[in-house]
Specification:
The protein has 272 residues and is of the alpha/beta class. The chain is 34% helix and 18% strand. Residues 32-150 form the Dienelactone hydrolase domain.
């Protein structure tokens, strides 16, 4: 039984800048098959995020990771996480404290999704947001190119006060467009969180369920006292830091469920 999360390096990943909407970031790409945009969690494209990317590549997807913040490939120490958190929270691109907000980075990510969809075999792409970027997956789903949005522990806006805890993380106009797509196109949104995670509050999920109805699918992992997997009370990173590659482990099962969701919506299977 491994006691640590799966990790990897950027060896073999192709790096190229992508610019849109007045923003430009280096993007790392690997794999073949339907496209998945994998967004980093604070403090950046850590070895654990790359580990998730490698898993998706192995599952038959073309994965693109935009380096929205931090230093790609560096481990997420407490000091580095704190420093990057301060920087992104005051950044105009992310508007970390704003409610009912259209965030400039969302336009960039929609353009990135369209670009990937235009050169991969499926009709559209998946977008996985993690932690700080969790809600950006929902914002990306405004665009028809996004067929499989996955919000893992969405944490923006920073949940200080009741209004921010209940905020969907997108503007009302963006949310209305996603609601329309669930009704007219069969779009489905997958979301994940730990039951006791204060950074990704249940109030946010309640808001999204009220608006999206049965098109909002939720995976909740028990992080309460005495939970069977030994998750700590502050467990947060469902698909990265908390994964253990041990049969039956709940976070590993969540990763499997996300992979199955992507296959269902996009196709793509590993060869052999």
């Amino acid at each position: 039984m491994s006691g640590t999360a799966p990790v990897s390096t950027l060896d073999g990943w192709r790096r190229a800048p992508f610019a849109a909407g007045g923003l430009s970031y280096d993007c790392y790409e690997k794999g073949e098959g339907p496209g998945v945009v994998l967004l980093p969690e604070v403090p950046g494209i850590t070895p654990e995020v790359i580990g998730l990317g490698e898993h998706l590549v192995g599952e038959g997807f073309t994965v693109v990771m935009p380096s929205l913040f931090g230093v790609p490939g560096r481990p997420g120490t407490l000091g580095r996480t704190a420093l990057v958190s301060v920087r992104v929270c005051v950044s105009a691109e992310f508007r970390a404290f704003a409610t009912n907000a259209r965030r400039p980075v969302a336009d960039y990510l929609r353009a990135l999704a369209r670009d990937l969809a235009g050169r991969t075999p499926a009709a559209g792409v998946g977008v996985i947001g993690l932690c700080f970027t969790g809600g950006f997956a929902l914002a990306a789903a405004v665009d028809d190119a996004v067929l499989a949005p996955v919000m893992s522990q969405p944490s923006v806006p920073v949940p200080l006060g009741a209004a921010r805890r209940a905020d969907a993380g997108v503007s009302q106009d963006e949310l209305r467009r996603v609601v329309d797509r669930t009704r007219d196109e069969g779009l489905c949104v997958l979301a994940l969180r730990f039951s006791g995670d204060p950074l990704s509050p249940e109030d946010r999920f309640t808001t999204l369920r009220a608006r999206l109805g049965d098109a909002f699918k939720v995976i909740r992992l028990d992080s309460g006292p005495g939970n069977p997997d030994g998750f700590g009370r502050l467990a947060h990173s469902v698909l990265t830091l908390e994964v253990r590659e041990t049969a039956g482990h709940r976070a590993l099962r969540a990763r499997e469920d996300v992979t199955a969701f992507l296959h269902e919506r996009l196709g793509g299977r590993p060869q052999g």
